Amino acid sequence: MTAVVLRAATRASALARCQTGIVAGLLADACRVATEPVAVSTTGDRRTDTPIHAMGGKGVFVKEVQAAVLDGRADIAVHSAKDLPSSTPEGLVLAAVPRRGDPRDALVGRRLADLGAGATVATGSVRRKAQLAGLRPDLNFAELRGNIATRLEAAAGFDAIVMAAVALQRLGLEPDVVDVLDPDDFVPQVGQGAIAVECRADDRTTLRMLAAIEHRPSRRAVDAERAFLAELGGDCNLPAGAHATNPGGGVHLTGLLASTDGSRLIRDTRSGRDPEMLGTAVARHLLDVCGGRELLEGSL
Length: 300
Hints:
The chain is α/β, with parallel strands linked by helices. It has 3 domains: 115 residues, Periplasmic binding protein-like II (D-Maltodextrin-Binding Protein, domain 2, 3-Layer(aba) Sandwich), CATH 3.40.190.10; 76 residues, Periplasmic binding protein-like II (D-Maltodextrin-Binding Protein, domain 2), CATH 3.40.190.10; 73 residues, Double Stranded RNA Binding Domain. The chain contains 10 helices and 13 strands. Helix 8 runs parallel beside helix 9. The longest helix is centred in the first third of the chain and has 18 residues. The chain is globular.
């Protein structure tokens, strides 16, 4: 065993630890480096009785994890990329995005087509609520928070719940009914399915090691989606999502912006070579051409 050990800050949930284990395995294979997890409690983990959007949305699952790297308790931070705000704190850098997992959302408990009129779907995501309401205005919604196991236990109390398909896959969970939603019809969260690894910007040794586990196509897709969110205003109050793929070496991106009740869903799809320019262009089109600025102003 090599003497080099990277301390990896992570949330304490089963999924977070699983994702940290994925990163640890990649680093061991690529660099012969051992990884030691450093569990961190985040605001989002502690305040399970409060909707995520009421706590300020993005950042509630990552700030304390990032702080552990900035203050030297850890060398790297391992996140679900979908939890990251669009901007990285000073002193840190998004150093690696390994190969992305499934970016799609999934209904658990009942298929969308099998939900009866007035069925209740539980989710803590305003993006998921808006898109489901747009597809099925007859549905009712309930708030749902907690880790994956807690949410699956609560599923029996509703007609269906919504979660990231990749969470089930990484934890090896197989509920009786899982309806994975097509991203062309149901746009995922920015970065969903991807793992993001941060380190200190001046830590050149760790930067070199993390570069070895970067998956370039996944990074380009995530960069395009994050640029889209940044141009919207970082962490806008409205339901927003983006989904990028890498056909033929380029980037193909769909961006979504919606009203909170799902009565208006606007989207744009286009392709390009530069991920950041593409994400910015899609967001600007939604804002300036499709009426997105009016949606944003109405949410303030």
